[in-house]
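To: structure desk
From: M.T.
Subject: fold request, one chain
Message: Could you run this one when you get a chance? Sequence is below, nothing fancy, just the single chain.
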Amino acid sequence: MDEIEGGVLSGIPASALTLNLTRSAIKMLHTPSWTIDKTNSVHDLVIGLSGMGRYVIDGNEFLFGPGEAMLIPAGTRFVGEYASGALYIGVAQHFTLDLFGQHDLISQMHLRPRVTLSRWALLQPVVQYYHDISPPSSTTLTQHHLFMFMLISYIEDAFIAWRVQSAGPVGVGDTISMAITIAATQITADPLNADIAERVVAAAPYNPDYFKREFRRQIGWTPVKFQEFKRMERAMNLLESGKTITETAVSIGYSDVYYFSRMFKRYIGASPSAYKEAVRRSRDGHFPRGEEDGQVIYPLVNIT
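Reply: Done. Structure tokens follow.
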């Protein structure tokens, strides 16, 4: 089930984000004589591989070691030193992450500054590889892709809440687009929450009617219908994983399986049973959606 839950950033289109690695990766290999006291002008993500470091950030002192990640936000002074154990090894990467080319995405979120990475068994070889392949004075395309994976993993573990948005002038596209993207992301991450659509509209720093109109114009659905569609996407994943129609209906909050089936067909374009059959056929080499070369558009047509 964890594999199909909505993530913190799952509602943000990849094209809306711009990642910039502002310098080559720092391949940490620190001895007992290592100390640092500085402030960076950009964000810095640090991930430990072995050994221990001791840091003081914003007056908080802590030990930092293998399997942990910490974000040092831009403009934050930090002091670090070797702590104990083997060589203190890890990676530190300076970066910016912009939404729509002008909004710092990191500053839009409340994040725990330090976390133990929940999927360290998966991430450890990736971080080690990143450490090993990073050139000393440049960045590469491979680094960008690997770092985005590591950064998203940190964000998923560290995320607390979105910060309260402030309204820009009506008609300024990037500002309203950011608010809509964050609202869509909140719905995508928690579509089974009965009042999530109402809450994101109420929280947006715009007139509710205006915000809903812009949401529909940019996303293609009203917030309520977008939530219903995301519930049906969750249902699609459950059906693909082998759940029965009844189990799926209950899992996404429908006590009436017949009503669920009607809603599923309205949004997806096929009944749950037809969708399960289409998935089965796809595993035999028959693509179920009829749109092998383009973006899938719902409701589906000619699924069987």
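Reply (cont.): The mean pLDDT is 88. Let me know if you need anything else for the meeting.
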